[in-house]
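call fold(seq) -> tokens
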Amino acid sequence: MSSRNPFEGMNLIDLSAPIAEALPCTWPGHMPFVHRGWRDIGAQSAYKTQFMVMDEHCGTHFDAAPHFIPPPGTASPLASPLGAKGGDQVDLNQLCGPAAVIDVRTLAGAGRPGQSPWITAEHIRAWESRHRVLERGDIVLFASGWSERYRPGAEGRSFLQGPAVEGDLPGWPAPDLEAILHLAERGVVTVGTEAASLGAVQDGAPVHQAGLGRGMHYVEGLCNLSRLPALGAFFIFLPLKIVDSTGCPGRAIALLPELS
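ret:
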């Protein structure tokens, strides 16, 4: 391996969804993604630049504790010091680690309209029986194939709008509370999904409150997880460093050794 290129001998797989106004990259009812021109090259300018308006939870992003956990002094039983720790304070070491990819593609499309099918603790235990027991530092990624629905216009209704707003299409696979508690007991801190949210369409709050309240982080809006093996890839998510954020978009990749 060359000392100048630590990635030599590795495949770099992009796990990030593209962001565009025509794509379903923003949760309905939140600030829509806006990307417009500001200055163009011409007689009055030697350069071109554009501006963006975007929600913190746009595209491939992560949830930090303040997304669902209030800070101390708040009149809420969920109040915790974690609620005062913005996304800029999250240790990047917790967002990088060996990927444990759990294939739940058989659940995609199995839910009722407006309902998510559950990823249960039994799904996770079955994966552990085939591979190994999950460990502290593992990044658990639920490969559902849901990102294949992330398309512009009417073709993208099944990704988010149909399940979560109009309730006429099946919801994405989502872990139930027992599954999240099982991961927390194993010491897993970061969990990823190809869906717009790790929470279920019918009630996304409990899983967020339980996980984020225990210091976990959720990476949502991933893609290409089906390209990863169950074990052997190294996951990296690097969010923008926005002070006091409840989470933030970023770039997710996986490093996979090349087969000889």
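The chain has one domain: 10-28+56-257.
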